[in-house]
Amino acid sequence: MIVADRKPFDEIMGMIESCERILLVGCNECVTVCAAGGAKEVALLASQIRMKRKAGGRPIEVDEKTLERQCDPEYAKSLAETLEGYDAVLSIACGCGVQLVAETCQGLRVLPGLNTRFMGVTEEHGVWAERCQGCGDCVLDRTCGICPVARCAKSIMNGPCGGSQNGECELRHDTPCAWQLIIDRLKASGELSRYGEIAKPRDWSASRDGGPRKRIREDMKI
Ligand code: SF4
Ligand code: SF4
Questions:
Q1: Cα 136 to ligand 1 centre (Å)
Q2: pLDDT at 210 over 70
Q3: Which ligand 1 atom sits closest to the C-alpha of 148?
Q4: Peptide bond into 73 cis (omega under 30)
Q5: What percent of the chain has pLDDT over 70?
Q6: Which of 118, 119, 131, 135 for a ligand 1 pocket mutation test, highest count of atoms within 8 Å of Cβ?
Q7: Residues of the chain with CATH 3.40.50.2300
Q8: What's the sign of the alpha-carbon dihedral 50, 51, 52, 53?
Q9: Which ligand does the CA of 132 lie closest to?
Q10: What is the pLDDT of residues 108-145, one digit of tens each?
Q11: Stretch 59-87: mean pLDDT, rounded?
């Protein structure tokens, strides 16, 4: 899932400083799971904004809405019919959701209420960790299901580097060395002999060619 955090409250208030009526829009998917942008967070943020502005003598009207998925035009389009009279839309979805809403709500300011962090997993309640950078050329088969792109601080393909010590990454001592994890898992599955296989230089253009990527499934197009 995509993991995001709410922006600092003062930053949000600064973005809507000139507004008298806004639509605050959440999303029922990833940002609900990471407790940053679901219906509950919409209600909480809306109340905080109203109270802050009322206390400052400049009340603001904040309407609330939570879409099933802000990154899906099927749902984002439903906003277009209800935008009359708003000064801005404040979206608390990930950056993809904000952008699709901005495309849908042409002519209206669309503001981001979250900072989108990464694609990750839930490690425990309240703890999420990065697992994938969407590199476009997955190597998890070679690395026993541990991603060296996202989990090695240097994204190296033939690790560990010389800085790996006692299973820790040299750049962050609270983080396990991804390559040590890979070696441990290869050992545990009796596949350590595969560790000697040198990975060829990667073609990073699949993910890092500087432009936006697109995936088209011709079989699904209507
Ligand atoms: S190798 Fe690439 S696609 Fe696979 S998990 Fe890592 S970043 Fe994601
Ligand atoms: S210590 Fe391990 S995780 Fe850290 S940069 Fe080196 S190989 Fe990557």
A1: 7
A2: no
A3: 6
A4: no
A5: 99
A6: 135
A7: 2-118
A8: positive
A9: 1
A10: 999 999 999 999 999 999 999 999 999 989 999 999 99
A11: 94
Q: What is the pTM of this model?
A: 0.90
Shortest CA distance to 26 belongs to which of 114, 107, 130?
114
Q: Is the pLDDT of residue 213 over 80?
A: no
CA 36 to chain centroid, in Å, comes to: 11
Q: Which amino acid is at 100?
A: L
Tell how far the Cα of 200 is from the centroid of ligand 1, in angstroms: 16
Give the residue, by CA position, lying nearest to ligand 2 atom 6: 161
- At the topology level, CATH places domain 2-118 in Rossmann fold (3.40.50)
Q: Which of 169, 173, 174, 180 to mutate to test the pocket of ligand 2 (most atoms within 8 A of CB)?
A: 169
